[in-house]
Amino acid sequence: RDWSSDVCSSDLDAFAVCSSLTSINLPNGVTSLGDDAFAVCSSLTSITLPESLMSIGEYAFYGCGSLTRSE
């Protein structure tokens, strides 16, 4: 799933428990991910993090046991 280039952060548990989410491509310009942002996204296997990312909240990827690749 691609994010709009207008997005710069995610709120607390913005995508938590989204079982249909399999991959994430965060665009350059995203600066932070909130606590539990992608927690318990059980089907999430890969994520691309931009160089602009400065902070990742607590438990942002907690319970993402299928996550095997990040860039």
Keyword list:
71 residues, 0% helix, single chain, mainly beta
Topology:
Blueprint: E1 23-25, E2 32-33, E3 46-48, E4 55-56, E5 69-70
Parallel strand pairs: 1-3, 2-4, 3-5
Average pLDDT number:
82
| Count of helical regions | 0
Instruction: Order the strands across the largest sheet as they lie in space.
Output: 1-3-5
The count of DSSP E runs of length 2 or more, i.e. the number of strands, is 5
Radius of gyration: 11 Å
Poorly predicted regions are 4-9
The helix content, as a percent range, equals under 10%
Shape: globular
Q: Kindly name the structural category.
A: mainly beta
What is the CA–CA distance across the termini?
A: 15 Å
Largest sheet: 3 strands, parallel
β-strand percent reads 15-25%
Concise summary:
With 71 residues, the chain is mainly beta.
Model description:
- With 71 residues, the chain is mostly beta strands.
- 0% of the residues lie in helices and 17% in strands.
- The protein has no helices and five strands.
- The strands form two sheets. The chain has a three-stranded parallel β-sheet with strand order 1-3-5, with no helix packed on it.
- It starts with 22 loop residues before the first strand and ends with a strand.
